[in-house]
UniProtKB/TrEMBL annotation:
Record's GO cellular component terms: cytosol
GO molecular-function term, one example from the UniProt record: metal ion binding
Peptidase M24 domain span: 21-245
Any GO BP: proteolysis
Assembly and interaction partners: Monomer.
Chain residues that bind a divalent metal cation 1: 100, 111, 238
Record keywords: Aminopeptidase, Hydrolase, Metal-binding, Protease
Origin species: Mycolicibacterium phlei DSM 43239 = CCUG 21000
Domain of life: Bacteria
Protein name, entry field: Methionine aminopeptidase
HAMAP family: MetAP_1 (MF_01974)
Amino acid sequence: MVELKTPQEIAAMDVTGSFLAGLLDDLTHRARPGVNLLELEQRARELIAERGAVSCYWDYAPSFGRGPFRNVICLSVNDAVLHGLPHDYVLADSDILSMDIAVSIDGWVADCARSIIVGTPRPEDQRLVKATEEALAAAIEAARPGNRIGDISAAIYGVAKDYGYRVNTDFGGHGLGRTMHEDPHVPNAGRAGRGLKLQPGLTLALEPWFTAGSERIVWDPDGWTLRSADGSRTAHSEHTVAITEDGPLVLTTRERVTA
């Protein structure tokens, strides 16, 4: 069931989104060579507790994971792209780190992800991260009243195709609001003009993620972490976006962004 939000409810989600943007800014500053993933997990816990927010990940037990998840953030490194389980790993120079987090404040959820390069960047990794960011920007631009879900999906796929990356459609974007995962599903590839018509009040987590090689993914033994099947590097970008009469409104940024 798709639930449309009122302007007041979108404003409440905006509060949550702004908090998450600040949290990722904090972790981005701390993510340097020599830092353990568990330190970043602990810092995220501290910030969530200080704000009085509630993690959407803690005790999360979906059908696709080996639940319950007992962390507050997904930290995925290099060939890991989604649902990375924080563990005892020390970041090395030139690692790609993808950070994905969702929390609730006063009953309203926001969800976002960011990929960064730790230390010295490799040009091919910069290109990969840039592609996900451009795909996210294209998806946001397509998230306008009167368009359809397929327009968002086609926008993401178009950027991937331009860069020469293949697209996996097993996991993609989704609705959110009172909970982390709501209808509709937003694939990262699709046909323009197809699918659910976009209306003001619809709130979506848009999240293109690409691999540098094969689009196939495999599970880690931890039951959560998803990696590229061929060991190629990966990147993931995500924002929570509200569709309004005036166009898309990005909620997971510290500055309000309309497209």
